[in-house]
Amino acid sequence: MKGFGVWLTERYYSEKCIKDFLMRIGLFLGWLQLQKLTLETIDYKDLLNYIGHLQNQEKSKTSINTTLRAIEHYYTFLGIKNIALNVRLRGTYQEQILLLTQEELNTIYNNYQNTTKHGYFKYSNKLILGLMIYQGLDKQDIMNLELNDVDLEKGVIKVPGGIRRKNDRIIQLEAHQIIPFNDYIINYRGIGRNGKVSTEESEKLFHPNVNKEQRIHDQLKALAKAIRVQNPDLNFKRLTQLKQSRIGIWISMYGLRRAQYLAGYKDVGNIEKYRDKDMKDLSKQIEMFHPLG
Questions:
Q1: pTM here?
Q2: How many domains does the chain have?
Q3: Which of 57, 61, 133, 268 has the fewest CB atoms within 10 Å, measured from its CB?
């Protein structure tokens, strides 16, 4: 089973996820041995019996589906008939993911009109919106950015990875972002919420309010509301859609590995759900009884 761990590592699964999968496969293999079955002789009915065994142990549906996912990957690794392919328990839900197209993202950016009366928000809102739309940044990424992370000569931005789930990455800026960034850094970065130059010292790019959790929360909440008002015909619900949509576009353009780098995730599992498929189906119940041909 050591080779399976290497196989998962090559697919950019996290160390924690790999350890969990190996544990689940070990338990599955132990059950097969007790039942006098092998990976080749087990059939669909036997797999349902194993699911029943896990249910008798009061495992949650989420935990059982994780086990089924591990088994599915193990069969793929071995290259034999995959008894667990697409088998999942009914009744677990994933949040509906509504991906926007590149054209829709451009529309949101181009339509945005800054109506806020707060001086600081007025100068940084569209820059932050652009970073979410074109570089796939989220709130924590925005809060982590410092002035030195922007290289306007090279037209790139270095996004710090943070502490846990993300890596550092360097992402190209769009050509139309360069001049507004330069104007902001030179003329407006030091302006506070009251429209006056702030006395607060900070290396943060979005100085000075971004290091105040509640202030950036309020700013992004107002930004999301403005997008909804200004784009009533678009299926826009929340700011996280912008990042999710960008990741989906990256996967289509560059493949999973490059998209993982640009998104900054250490675990490829964090972006697999944005693969090119009908995302609307993710909100439906997942069927357990998968027909095996």
A1: 0.63
A2: 2
A3: 57
